[in-house]
Structures are given as C-alpha cells and as structure tokens.
C-alpha cells in the first residue's frame, strides 16, 4: 500500500469507482480506493440495474443522461462489458393527473435535449404486449432507458481507473480519519495508515458511519427494497420488453432473461439499520417479505396478467440509502478541509457517472462545472437530524411513484423549525410550507375557511385568497413573515475588504443597503444578497434561506486568517416586513423616527425602536412596493407582530404569505436564487449587470464577468406574458420560438395585481428583442407568450422609492 496519496476514495461501490475513474480521467493519477471487503459488496451487487433519465430536477436529469451515455466509454477503456440493454422505457399513466405530469415531463425533456415523448396506449401496448390496455390512458416513452449489469459496470469503472493510474486496495477497512494541521488526512485502516491530501466518503451503506469518524451526521437512511424475478414467461415477444414504470401499481419492471423482474416501493417502507450499519454485513440479502408488497403485486398482476400466471423464481430484498429528498449528497463538507462526500445515491446506475464527473471537477477545478445544487450536501443543515431523515426518507420512499404537485407541501418531519410567530400565524389561519426545516405561511385562509390547499397542476382554491393578499399590498398594507431568509453578520476591521472581494458590488456606506450577486471564478452566479451596513465594521447580509450552508461554506473557504468573522443569524434574527402604500404611515405610528423619503430613503438601514421593540429596519421590499423589512431578536418577535397588528387595524393591515410575495415579485421581474439565479448564468444574462462594479478593484469572478459584459452573454432573462387559459407556468417549461425550443421558464405564476399570467424565462440573447413567435408549453400545449419590454408593475420603481 502507498503511504502518501493525493486522494483516497473510501468505498468500492459503483459510486466510489466512478469517482475514482473521473479523477484519473481528468488527470489526477495519484489516487487510491480503499474497500473494506470486495468491490460491489454494499448495495451495488444486488441492484436491479435499471437506468433512466427521469428526475424531478432538470439538472440531475442531465447528469443521468451523461451517466447512461458514459457506459460505452468505460467499456472501451476497461475492456469490461457493462451489460447495457437499452430497449427504451415506458411510464404508464392511468389517470388524468398522471397524464398532466407526463406531459410536463415530456415538455421538460424537450429543453433538456432528451427525447422522451408522449405515446398513446395502443403504441405503449405495441411496445409492451403484456399490459392490459384498459387500465391506462397514455404513456411517456424514452428511448434512453433500460438496464445493465451492476457488477460488470462497477468493475468497468474500476478497471478503467486502474488503467489510468489509480490503485485499489481490497480488504482494507478505514477505521479512523485524523486530520493534520495542513488539512491532509491520516487514514487509519486495518492494513496500516495512509496519508491522503483529500478524502472522499463513498461509503454507501456505511457512509453515515464514515461520516461519524469526523463528527458528521450525514442525513442518510437505508431502506429495505424488494424485487422479484418470475419464471420464464412463454408469451414474451421476440423483441426485448421496455423498462417500465406503472405509476398506478407503483411498480417497475423489465425483462430478465426469459422472465420479468418486478420491483415496488411500498407505502409503508421499512428502514434498515436506522441508527448503525453493522460492519459485518457484506454481499448479503435480507429476508424477503412478500406480504409487505402484496397490494402492489395484486395491482401489478391485474395490469400485466401474464405475470400472475408465471411462478416466482427469486425474491431479492436488499438495502440502499436515501437522503431526505431522494437526491444524492455530493461535494465538499463545510468546515472540514479536503473532505468530500458522494453518498446517499439511490440510483447509482443512473446517477453514478454524473456524481463522479461533478465531484472530480469540483476537486480538480474548484467547481463542479454544472448546477448541482439539487445534490449538494450543503442543501441540508443541522436540522436534518437522524429522526428527521428517518421521517422524510420513509415518506419519500413511499411516494417514489406518486405525483407531487407543484403546490404540494409534504407532511413528514413537520413542524420542526418554527419562528416565535408560528402559533399566532396558525391562529390567523395560515397554510404553511416548509423550507430549510422552517415553517412559513404560504397564504392565509379567510376566517371560517379550513386552511387547506387542494393540490393541482392548475390554479388552486388559494388563487382568490392570494389575489386578495396582493390587492391589500398594492392598495393598503400587508405584513409578511420573513424569518426564512438566511441572515449573516460580517464583522471586524477586515469585513468591508472581505465583502468587497467575495461580492462584485461596492459595499454600502453606513446606514445604507446595496444589492449584490455573488460570482464564482467563472463569473457565474452563486448567490444574490442584500447587504446592509450597520457601522464601520459590521454588515448584515440577507440571502436565500435554503442556501445558507452553501454560502457559509464558500465564505469560510475564502476567509482570511484574521480581521473578519462571519456569523449566521439564522435563529438569532427574526423578520417581519410591511409593504404597500400605507406601510410608512403604519410604521410611523409606532416610531419617533422620521420615515420621510428625505430622512430615510429607499435602501436605508437603521436601528430604531418600533413600539417597545428594538429593531433593525431596512427600507426595501421584495414586493416592489413601498416597504420596510424589520429584524429583531427572537424574544421580540411576538411583541413586534402584536404591535404591528394592533397599529395596523387602522390601516387595514392584512396578513400576506409567500404565494402573494411570489406573485408580486413576478410582476416586478425580480429574480430569486435557485430559480433565476443559478451557477449556469452570468450577471449580464440574469439582468444583474448593474450590480457588478468593475471600478472598485478586484473581486472573485471579475475577469470572467468582464468577458461576459463584453460579449453580452449568450442568454437573456426576460419577463413573458402568457396567454390566459386558466393555468400558469410554474417553472421548467420549454420556451419555443417559431416552433423550435430555444429556452426555458425559471418561474411562473399569476400576477394578481396586473391580472396577467407571467413567466420569467431564459431565451437566447439574440432573440430577446423579438416578440412575434414565442410560445411556452404548459399542460401539454404551446401557449402564446410575449416578452414584456418592461416589468408589468411599476417599471420605473417609483412606488418603492417615493
Ligand atoms: C434491491 C435493490 C435494487 C436496486 N435497483 C437499482 C436500479 O435498478 N437502478 C439503480 O440505479 N440503482 C438501484 N439500486 C440502488 C443502487 O444499488 C445504489 O444506488 C448503489 O449501489 C449505491 O452505490 P454506492 O457506491 O453509493 O454504495 P455501496 O454499494 O453501498 O458501496 C459502498 C462501499 O463502501 C465500502 N465501505 C464502506 N465503509 C468503508 C470503510 N470504512 N472502509 C472501506 N470501505 C468501506 C463498502 O464495503 C461498500 O463496498 C438498487 C438497490 C437495491 C438494494
């Protein structure tokens, strides 16, 4: 065994082998893989081997496509077959809702460059003669689906990696990880200690235990998963059956030799080793329990009668791991230098290649090269405890083949984090959503109406109530809970210099606010912030709640050794905002401060008393209206709320939720992190160029941003008005020009005050000036859309400034 290496990958499942392969492919040859037993001995060896591109997140779907297309390459390099069969795949729909979903998936696949398309039941039955057509109304067909040999594939990655310089040490169990002062790792194994500059945890079923060696509790849980293989079926057609998902039966199936492999995700799934994975488990199966999946099998046998007549040859029950949302956990771990993870990969054969590609890029280039936020380990915080993970994974497992509607909020693991106003807002009939573990009001049902939203792809029962909330803000005043934002304090004599380095805008004067995107070295957007200066050495910075760990990780990795400290104020600063033409009068009734525009203009920030409450007040509002954001410590949150509510009665103050806020920011053309602002766009493309200050000196991403300014960027973010037909875009719909897909929607919804259906979308820059032939595909049909030259609401920004 070597004594010193650049990278040690822990775990020889399909994911570890893919990471090893990609590191060598991109030039890091001094890399080893440590496997406690034999390659594939975790969840890899008994996988069903299904491969597909379908994923709720378009960026992950792209990486799945990459994975499937990679198999040829590793076969060629390794000389080892992956046993890939690509007979295509069908997703069968039995209900109208599922057809809506299928149409959305088809539309999305169009802008991703995938070829999935809706087919009739007859066409589906031609490809899958075993199905009983009576139970279905349509299907999605994707030619890039099939199955492979899990073991052969893992060995193909491993052999290709070793051919390119990697070494693999089998029977080498990592028992401890000790970090040296220089950031490298002493890796203690049963075969001796090896030093690695970087460690990658690809421990699969044991990733949690490997994480615990460095004090991490990764949000991962293994679930038991069963599939069966039938005896030979004499009526099988000559052509191989497609891979198939039957959403009504909640089963998947494919051909296995002359029989069928059929698996299911039962509703009441069973976690495996919920607290501690046994180290002596290896290449083993779990006892099968057909009773648990009997209901699914019954539906399956009804939908595919030939299966009911075939005997069962084999039943497999094996464990594999999931993160709470079902996507992998990938990337550098905040606070641990040179420590990387690639685990929680529930579809290793569809995703493993993309995971390896992203991680190797990240380690070598400092950037994953794609938008991988959906699988970034930093999307979780300390609130994703073992028990939360358990609740969420079980929910997610049971819903694997269920429709999740765009307005659906899933119930498991809630409420967990609540602001001090939770009970007050509940009493006010709020309908809650949850983000980053925190409950926040989506909208408020009128008194006497149950606070329940029907789930739908169209406009829900919330529509009129959200409209009333928007109306209240535009004509009077509304109160919005804003504690879900991420909040940070930057302090110290070096705070201004540091912020000037990591943010491209010039930092504000004391008592003022600036908006600034954040760029990576490639000049792409990795954040957008509101920066308020409290005093010479203290800044309050506000950003996207779900990106808190992602941003903290970035800042901490760029922090100088002294002069500035960063503190997350997630639970230390709670927020309320008041917005609308009466917002100033309402606030003025509670403070002695002069709130006139001369004394406290737009983009001001000041510590002031509001009623009896000491608060920081910023004159800014995401509604695009006159508005104030108020920030207080949690012990004052209720008092502030009560004071605003009592004083607000005279001004017709109304509770307003995040749905209304979304409607108002859409008609103002305001983008938001993770939708309009992502690491695949530059500031010019996203319309944030005015917040990049090239005159202030150097900052991260300056050179690339300068190049983008000179070229103008390839894309342009535009506000589109969509023809009225009773539903709205929600995001991820393709935009066509003259019938050809040219762009995609990032957010959409109904702008209640303007009375328009609005979509924010990226289109090629050269088309952004055209307006004659755009259409957005919504609910299975192209809907006429026009680019709005200016924001539908108050394009001059008079309302927020006056
Ligand atoms: C029944 C079943 C059916 C499935 N069907 C499919 C499917 O159809 N399609 C699909 O894409 N996926 C499927 N999967 C999921 C797939 O198997 C997993 O996504 C994949 O195997 C995960 O690979 P991994 O490398 O992350 O983990 P693992 O395969 O668990 O590998 C982890 C490796 O790390 C090693 N290790 C752990 N700790 C240490 C240590 N301390 N020192 C050294 N080595 C260590 C382990 O020994 C193990 O070899 C299925 C899984 C099951 C159980």
Helix content: 25-40%
The number of distinct helices, counting runs of at least 4 residues, comes to 19
Look at the helices and sheets and give the structural class.
alpha+beta
Kindly report the average pLDDT value.
96
Rg, alpha carbons? 27 Å
List bound small molecules: flavin-adenine dinucleotide
Largest sheet features? 9 strands, mixed
Low-pLDDT residue intervals, each spanning 5 or more residues: none
Beta content: 25-35%
Oligomeric assembly: single chain
Q: How many angstroms does the end-to-end distance come to?
A: 71 Å
Q: Kindly state the number of beta strands.
A: 38
Shape descriptor reads globular
Features:
alpha+beta; 802 residues; binds flavin-adenine dinucleotide; 28% strand; eight-stranded mixed sheet; nine-stranded mixed sheet
Structure description:
With 802 residues, the chain is of the alpha+beta class. Helices cover 26% and strands 28% of the residues. Strands 4, 5, 6, 12, 13, 14, 15, 16 and 17 form a nine-stranded mixed beta sheet that branches. A hairpin with a 5-residue loop joins strand 24 (513-519) and strand 25. Helix 1 packs parallel to helix 5. The longest helix has 21 residues, at 58-78. It is globular and about 80 Å long. The protein starts with a strand and ends with a helix. The protein binds flavin-adenine dinucleotide (FAD).
């Amino acid at each position: 065994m070597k004594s010193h290496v650049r990278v040690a990958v822990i775990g020889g499942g399909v994911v570890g082998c893919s990471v090893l392969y990609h590191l060598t492919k991109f030039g890091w040859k001094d890399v080893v893989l440590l496997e406690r037993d034999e390659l594939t001995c975790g969840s890899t060896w008994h996988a069903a081997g299904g491969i597909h591109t379908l994923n709720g997140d378009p960026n992950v779907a792209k990486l799945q496509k990459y994975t499937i297309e990679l198999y040829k390459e590793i076969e060629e390099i390794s000389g080892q077959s992956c046993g890939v069969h690509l007979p295509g795949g069908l997703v069968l729909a039995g209900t109208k809702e599922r057809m809506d979903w299928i149409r959305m998936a088809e539309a999305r696949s169009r802008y991703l460059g995938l070829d999935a398309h809706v087919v009739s039941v007859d066409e589906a039955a031609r490809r899958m003669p075993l199905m009983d057509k009576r139970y279905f109304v349509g299907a999605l067909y994707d030619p890039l689906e099939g199955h492979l040999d899990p073991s052969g594939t893992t060995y193909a990655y491993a052999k290709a990696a070793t051919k390119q310089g990697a070494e693999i040490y089998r029977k080498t169990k990592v028992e401890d990880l000790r970090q040296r002062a220089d950031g490298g790792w002493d890796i203690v194994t049963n075969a001796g200690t090896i030093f690695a500059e970087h460690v990658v945890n690809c421990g699969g079923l044991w990733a949690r235990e490997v994480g615990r060696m460095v004090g991490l509790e990764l949000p991962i849980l293994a679930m038991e998963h069963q599939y069966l293989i039938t005896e030979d079926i004499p009526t099988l057609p000559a052509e191989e059956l497609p891979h198939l998902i039957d959403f009504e039966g909640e089963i998947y199936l494919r051909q296995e030799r002359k029989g069928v492999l059929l698996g299911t995700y039962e509703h009441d799934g069973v976690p495996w080793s919920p607290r501690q994975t046994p180290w002596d488990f290896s290449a083993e199966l779990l006892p099968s329990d057909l009773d648990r999946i009997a209901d699914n099998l019954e539906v399956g046998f009804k939908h595919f009668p030939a299966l009911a007549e075939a005997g069962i040859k084999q039943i497999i029950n094996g464990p594999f791991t999931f993160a709470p949302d079902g996507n992998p956990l990938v990337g550098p771990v905040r606070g641990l230098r040179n420590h990387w993870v690639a685990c929680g990969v529930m579809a290793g054969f569809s995703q493993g290649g993309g995971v390896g590609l992203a991680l190797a890029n990240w380690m070598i280039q400092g950037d994953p090269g794609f938008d991988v936020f959906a699988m970034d380990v930093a999307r979780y915080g300390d609130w994703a405890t073992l028990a939360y993970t358990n609740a969420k994974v079980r929910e997610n497992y049971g819903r694997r083949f269920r429709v999740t509607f765009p307005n659906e909020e899933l119930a498991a693991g809630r409420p967990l984090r609540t602001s001090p106003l939770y009970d007050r807002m509940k009493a006010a009939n709020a309908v809650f959503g949850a983000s980053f573990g925190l409950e926040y009001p989506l909208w408020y049902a009128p008194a006497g109406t149950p606070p329940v939203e029907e789930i739908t792809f169209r406009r829900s029962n919330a529509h009129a109530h959200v409209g009333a909330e928007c109306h209240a803000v535009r004509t009077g005043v509304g109160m919005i809970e804003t504690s879900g934002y991420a909040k940070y304090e930057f302090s110290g004599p070096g705070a201004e210099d540091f912020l000037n380095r990591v943010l491209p805008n010039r930092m504000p004067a004391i008592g003022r606010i600036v908006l600034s995107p954040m760029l990576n070295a490639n000049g792409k957007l990795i954040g957008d912030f509101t920066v308020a200066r409290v005093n010479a050495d203290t800044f309050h910075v506000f950003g996207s709640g779900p990106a808190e760990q992602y941003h903290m990780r970035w800042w901490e990795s760029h922090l100088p050794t002294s002069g500035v400290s960063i503190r997350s104020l997630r639970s230390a600063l709670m927020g309320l905002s008041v917005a609308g033409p009466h917002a100033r009068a309402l606030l003025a009734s509670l403070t002695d401060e002069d709130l006139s525009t001369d004394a406290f203009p737009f983009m001001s920030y000041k510590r002031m008393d509001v009623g009896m409450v000491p608060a920081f007040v910023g004159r800014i509002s995401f509604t695009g209206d006159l508005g104030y954001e108020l920030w207080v410590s949690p012990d004052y949150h209720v008092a502030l709320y009560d004071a605003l509510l009592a004083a607000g009665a005279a001004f017709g103050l109304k509770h307003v939720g995040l749905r209304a806020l979304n409607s108002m920011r859409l008609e103002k053309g305001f983008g938001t992190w993770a939708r309009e602002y992502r690491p695949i766009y530059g500031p010019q493309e996203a319309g944030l160029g005015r917040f990049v200050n090239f005159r202030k000196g150097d900052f991260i991403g300056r050179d690339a941003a300068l190049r983008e300014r000179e070229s103008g960027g390839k894309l342009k973010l535009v506000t589109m008005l969509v023809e009225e037909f009773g539903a709205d875009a929600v995001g991820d719909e393709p935009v066509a020009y003259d019938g050809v897909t040219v762009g995609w929607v990032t957010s959409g919804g109904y702008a209640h005050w303007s009375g328009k259906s609005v979509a924010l979308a990226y289109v090629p820059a050269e088309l952004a000036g055209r307006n004659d032939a755009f259409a957005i595909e919504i609910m299975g049909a192209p809907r006429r859309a026009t680019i709005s030259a200016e924001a539908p609401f108050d394009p001059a920004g008079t309302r927020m400034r006056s």
